Amino acid sequence: MFRPVPDDGTGDVLVIPKAATDLKACRQEFFRVLTQHRLFP
Predict the structure, then answer these.
(1) What is d(CA 17, CA 25) in angstroms, rounded to the nearest whole number?
(2) N or C: where does the chain have the smaller number of CB atoms within 10 Å of the terminal CB?
(3) Is 23 helix (H, G, I), strand (E, B) or coil?
(4) Got the DSSP string for 3-22?
(5) What angle do CA 35, 26, 34 make, to 5 degrees?
(6) Could you give the CA distance from residue 19 to residue 36 in angstroms, rounded to a whole number?
(7) DSSP state of 27
């Protein structure tokens, strides 16, 4: 849910439920990207 915050206010950035996070897939994607030789010659 998005709630506008006044310019002088503070708010949360993002909340992701733990149950919706696939940590194994996140790790695989992280290392897949970091090992791309075209990105990091």
Answers:
(1) 16
(2) N
(3) helix
(4) ----TT---------GGG--
(5) 15
(6) 29
(7) H
Q: Helix or strand or coil: residue 31?
A: helix
How far is Cα 21 from Cα 36, in angstroms, rounded to an integer? 24
CA distances from 28 to 5, 8, 34, 37 (A): 35, 39, 10, 16
Residue the block writes with tokens 């733990």: 18
| Distance between CA atoms of residues 5 and 11, nearest Å | 7
